[in-house]
Amino acid sequence: MPLHFCGYLPKRVTARPPDYDLPGVQEIASVSNCIAKGVEIDVWRLNELGFLNDVGLAESFVPQTCATEFDVYGYRLLDERFKKGSAEAWTVPQLGCAPPGAEFERLGFDAVSKFPSNFFECSPLSCNGAARVVRANAYCLLDSLEEAVVAAKDFSAGPWEPGTYYIAEVLRRRRRTSR
Predict the structure, then answer these.
(1) Which of 16, 32, 156, 179 could be 123's S-S partner, Cβ–Cβ 3.0 to 4.6 Å?
(2) pLDDT digits (tens, 9 = 90+) for 70-121
């Protein structure tokens, strides 16, 4: 099951909200912007999947006055998607993204919904608290691709957010300073 690099996004460092009873979760690093918020980016700057093609461009959107409050994430997507509990092949668009360097580390895998005309929307692990019933890691992600496939099948079958689900490997540039 090949993963294809699809771009970068700067997102605010997001600790687990105090009212979220998610065992073992310390931080939210989901693809979705529901809880782990990104910065405002003109839509025309984003590729067709809603990411930026270059890490330098991603960095340029982070306000310098609060740069330590943000991390740059990278995303690899699986060439399968999940509808109503079943997997189907999906052709990942050719995006021309600069691949991440060795300074990026894998945090885990997310299962995230997407409607055909929109960018990625909901990560049930964090948005709907699925991490209460599906064992998530400290970043509210799944540790293996196999776990993400099972979750994406389950999420797409309901009763979570409706839509087609995609699997993203979530990478983050290693932090240079402690927070």
Answers:
(1) 32
(2) 999 999 999 999 999 999 999 999 999 999 999 999 999 999 999 777 789 9
Give the span between the Cα atoms of 5 and 159, in whole angstroms: 29
Tell me the C-alpha to C-alpha distance, in Å, between residue 141 and each of 65, 96, 106, 164. Answer: 29, 26, 10, 18
CA 31 to chain CA centroid, Å, is: 2
User: Do 77 and 49 meet the contact criterion of CB atoms below 8 Å apart?
Assistant: yes
Delimit the domains of the chain by residue range: 3-173
Concatenate the DSSP letters of all residues of 126-155 into one string.
Answer: HHS-GGGTS---TTSSBSSHHHHHHHHHHH
pTM score of the predicted model: 0.95
**Alpha carbon distance 139, 137 (integer Å):** 5
Distant-in-sequence, close-in-space partners of 69: CB < 8 Å, separation ≥ 6:
12, 13
Q: Name 15's bridge partners.
A: 27
C-alpha 92/C-alpha 62 separation (Å) is 27
Do 45 and 94 touch, CB atoms closer than 8 A?
Answer: no
Cβ proximity of 110 and 121 under 8 Å: no
